[in-house]
Automatic annotation (TrEMBL):
GO terms for molecular function: NADP binding; phosphogluconate dehydrogenase (decarboxylating) activity. This is Phosphogluconate dehydrogenase (NAD(+)-dependent, decarboxylating). PANTHER family: 6-PHOSPHOGLUCONATE DEHYDROGENASE (PTHR11811). It holds the Pfam family 6PGD. Its EC number is 1.1.1.343. It comes from Arthrobacter sp. K5. One of its GO terms (biological process) is D-gluconate metabolic process. The gene is gnd. Residues 162-290 form the 6-phosphogluconate dehydrogenase C-terminal domain. Keywords: Gluconate utilization, Oxidoreductase. SMART domains: 6PGD. Belongs to the 6-phosphogluconate dehydrogenase family.
């Protein structure tokens, strides 16, 4: 199988490498000449056998809009586009409708795994018609971890469902990170606790709160025991806000996720050890930039 991949930032670059290791031939395009395989999208399209499959892995919003609009003008009926970025689910429905007018298929896929996906594989949440998802299964199988498909891949539903599931996933992530971070600050505030990193390390096996996030928390403390190099300013990339907006729209109480989002807003005003830990965790799992300590 031979596919195109547009967007070779850190995550897209790693996905290209994992796909190739999984036996998928990939031609990648990026504006960065140091990582791209071809110089233009026209060359990318020409390199792919018809009907083409192109995975788009660029920042959500205007950049995704521009890429999908360009592909809509250049691809042929029967070709297929997958948006693997973090687009809002309502954007998927708009993109699918625009491409359908030209006979071009569309699917969306929420992707979790961050900078560790190349090594560990990615959790995948796909939205679209069943025949389109079936067509792309070899790609999904190459990206996901080894083992049962159901443990790391799901066809959530129609167009937009994949990104909706990923949005909720990230909202849950907000709450989990905030809980760990608040526990960290409470332990750090008590003089009786003399081995803070060791406490979290002892939770890694056998406890009910063990998780990959906890493992990354221990790693962050190993690298910077007091988190002295990290500012407590924490960005929010959109999914948490969208999750809270959807909770309001559907009258679903989501106090933990909402509080975690508001804590990120508070981090931009106060000095907080807990928010230093949230910033450190975002860097550990997703490679998100941290701000240096003031």
């Amino acid at each position: 199988m031979h596919i195109g991949l547009i967007g070779l930032g850190k995550m897209g670059f790693n996905m290209r490498e994992r796909l190739r290791k999984g036996g998928i031939e990939v031609t990648g395009f990026d504006r960065n000449p140091e990582v791209t395989d071809v110089a233009t999208t026209d060359e990318l399209i020409a390199a792919l056998p018809a009907p083409r499959l192109i995975w788009v892995m660029v920042p959500s919003g205007e950049i995704t809009d521009a890429v999908i609009t360009e592909l809509g003008a250049k691809l042929e009926p029967g070709d297929m586009v997958i948006d693997g970025g973090n687009s809002r689910f309502t954007e998927d429905q708009k993109h699918a409708a625009a491409l359908a007018e030209k006979g071009i298929r569309f699917a969306d896929c929420g992707v979790s795994g961050g900078v560790w996906g190349l090594q560990n594989g990615y959790g995948l949440m796909a939205g679209g018609d069943a025949e389109d998802i079936e067509r792309a299964l070899p790609v999904f199988d190459a990206l996901r971890p080894e083992g049962d498909r159901a443990d790391s891949f799901v066809h959530v539903g129609g167009v937009g469902a994949g990104h909706y599931a990923k949005m909720v996933h990230n909202g849950i992530e907000y709450g989990l990170m905030q809980a760990y971070a608040e526990g960290y600050e409470l332990l750090a505030a008590k003089e009786i606790v003399t081995d803070l990193p060791g406490t979290f390390r002892a939770w890694q096996k056998g406890t009910v709160v063990r998780s990959w996030l906890l493992d990354l928390m221990v790693k962050a403390l190993d690298e910077d025991p007091g988190l002295a190099s990290i500012d407590d300013y924490v960005e929010d990339s959109g999914e948490g806000r969208w999750t809270v907006e959807e909770a309001i729209a559907n009258a679903v109480p989501a106090p933990a996720i909402t509080a975690a989002l508001f804590a990120r807003f508070a981090s931009r005003e106060d000095n907080s050890p807990a928010m230093k830990m949230v910033s450190a965790l975002r860097h550990q799992f997703g490679g998100h930039a941290t701000r240096p300590a003031k």
